[in-house]
């Protein structure tokens, strides 16, 4: 029995060897496939986590942009209100009306009457207003005027005062809409560029060897609210200087806007009588004419309209802006690395501002701001047209086309809305502007494009693209930034939700 078993094993040992080899190979192949599947699952999981983390960072960045705009907008508002003191003109009109009333009725009756509003004052005075536009009074002139100048100002006719009131109130409201839109888009560019640098620095620090990453590691999730130097990258000094450049728009750019907007308002509204009754459609048409003079009448003119001079200082004024912002200039005790990094950020910001995509999105923000002012606030408060709903939009459009209101009634709304447009809390206009879908798409492209151009100090970024060796940072051609941005912007517009990056 034992002998026969040995003979059988000897005869079939080749088959056993082949079977064992097949089983072994099958086992090894199975383990290899399982390993690859596990690696693929892990890679997909890592990609999902990375994308979700990137999305959370991006969304947090957009919330930071909103809070930043609300925090610094009142600075520009104060400067614009001081440059166009509409309330002083109104006070002069009310003073003149009180003097006329005191001559026609007893003083005791005057004391019991309520102070007139803009619209009330117009009912009595605007019939004599011959509408020739006059220049507004700067706030700085109030304290420096000589008695002779005050006497001259007090002798201004009602026509002159109402002309000044009309031009100033409209100019102030329109300038604030432009300033709010520009500040919103500038802040989105600044914080998303810094957010991109922070994200890349985080990824690089995690991918770097432990000896390099120790002591400078930045977690992918930063829940420490007061850790500002990690909130927007690890180059705190560069970030401070870069963000301080918004001082130019808040203090200089908005005042330059006043001159441009005021000239357009004078051309369009100059001959309009405050006592005249016009339809909302006519007011919207006049507003559009002002916008065409400021932004451009054709698509080509709007596309080539340059806003850079309102948003960023010229290079020879950058040190002045830094000093006015409370920091030392670039040439004073600043490391070469900080200066280089700051220059790269400024240059990329300038390229974005001069891009056609910036002008496209900015025009949409202007549309949202002016629509909220004229189609919502003026229509409801001056023309008494109820809010538009989807079901009754057509009916209200037909009815609202026949409704007329005095220009003075709209001027009163322009005066009050100027404070709402520049408010730093519960700003309806900012909320309306941020409803523009292309704004978030633009911010997403800024946040996610041109990763390869960022190289955190002390670490070589191992971010690759086709045709680039691993760990090598490609050189930046002169026109590459704008071209790649325009390409990414076109892809972003092609996506329905505008959120994929």
From TrEMBL:
GO MF terms held by the record: protein-macromolecule adaptor activity
Transmembrane segments: 16-34
Keywords per UniProt: Membrane, Transmembrane, Transmembrane helix
Stretch list, region Disordered: 100-130, 458-501
Statement: the UniProt record of this protein carries the keyword Secreted: no
GO CC term, one of those recorded: peroxisomal membrane
BP GO annotations: protein import into peroxisome membrane
Name by which UniProt lists this protein: Peroxin-3
């Amino acid at each position: 029995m034992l002998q026969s078993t040995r003979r059988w094993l000897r005869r079939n040992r080749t088959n056993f060897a082949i079977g064992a080899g097949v089983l072994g190979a099958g086992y090894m192949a199975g383990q290899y496939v399982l390993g690859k599947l596990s690696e693929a699952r892990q890679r997909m999981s890592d990609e999902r986590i990375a994308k979700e983390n990137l999305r959370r960072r991006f969304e947090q960045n957009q919330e930071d942009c909103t809070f930043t705009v609300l925090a610094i907008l009142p600075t520009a508002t104060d400067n614009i209100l001081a440059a166009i003191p509409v309330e002083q003109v109104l006070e002069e009109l009310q003073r003149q009306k009180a003097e006329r009333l005191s001559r026609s009725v007893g003083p005791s009756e005057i004391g019991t009457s309520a102070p007139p509003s803009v619209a009330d004052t117009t009912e009595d005075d605007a019939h004599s207003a011959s509408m020739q536009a006059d220049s507004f009074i700067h706030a700085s002139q109030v304290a420096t005027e000589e008695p002779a100048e005050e006497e001259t100002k007090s002798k201004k006719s009602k026509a002159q005062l109402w002309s000044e009131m009309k031009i100033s109130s409209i100019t102030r409201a329109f300038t604030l809409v432009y300033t709010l839109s520009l500040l919103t888009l500038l802040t989105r560019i600044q914080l998303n560029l810094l957010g991109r640098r922070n994200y890349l620095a985080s990824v690089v620090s995690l991918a770097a060897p432990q000896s390099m990453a120790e002591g400078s590691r930045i977690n992918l999730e930063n829940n420490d609210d007061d850790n500002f130097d990690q909130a927007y990258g690890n180059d705190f000094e560069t970030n401070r200087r870069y963000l301080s450049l918004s001082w130019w728009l808040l203090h200089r750019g908005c005042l330059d806007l006043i001159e441009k907007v005021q000239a357009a308002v004078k051309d369009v509204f100059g001959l309009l009588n405050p006592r005249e009754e016009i339809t909302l459609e006519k007011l919207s048409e006049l507003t559009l004419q002002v916008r065409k003079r400021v932004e451009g009448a054709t698509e080509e003119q709007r596309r080539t309209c340059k806003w850079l001079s309102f948003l960023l200082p010229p290079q020879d004024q950058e040190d002045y802006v830094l000093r006015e912002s409370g920091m030392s200039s670039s040439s004073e005790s600043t490391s070469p690395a900080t200066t280089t990094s700051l220059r790269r950020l400024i240059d990329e910001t300038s390229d974005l501002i001069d891009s056609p995509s910036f002008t496209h999105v900015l025009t949409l923000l202007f549309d949202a701001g002016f629509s909220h002012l004229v189609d919502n606030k003026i229509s409801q408060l001056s023309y008494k047209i109820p809010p538009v709903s989807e079901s009754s939009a057509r009916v209200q459009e037909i009815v609202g086309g026949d409704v007329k209101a005095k220009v003075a009634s709209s001027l009163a709304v322009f005066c009050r809305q100027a404070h709402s447009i520049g408010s730093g809390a519960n700003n309806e206009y900012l909320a309306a502007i941020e409803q523009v879908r292309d704004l978030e798409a633009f911010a997403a492209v800024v946040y996610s494009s041109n990763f390869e151009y960022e190289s955190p100090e002390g670490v070589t970024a191992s971010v690759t693209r086709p045709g680039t060796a691993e760990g090598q940072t490609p050189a930046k051609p002169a026109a590459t930034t704008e071209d790649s941005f325009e390409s990414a912007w076109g892809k972003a517009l092609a996506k329905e939700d505008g959120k994929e990056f």
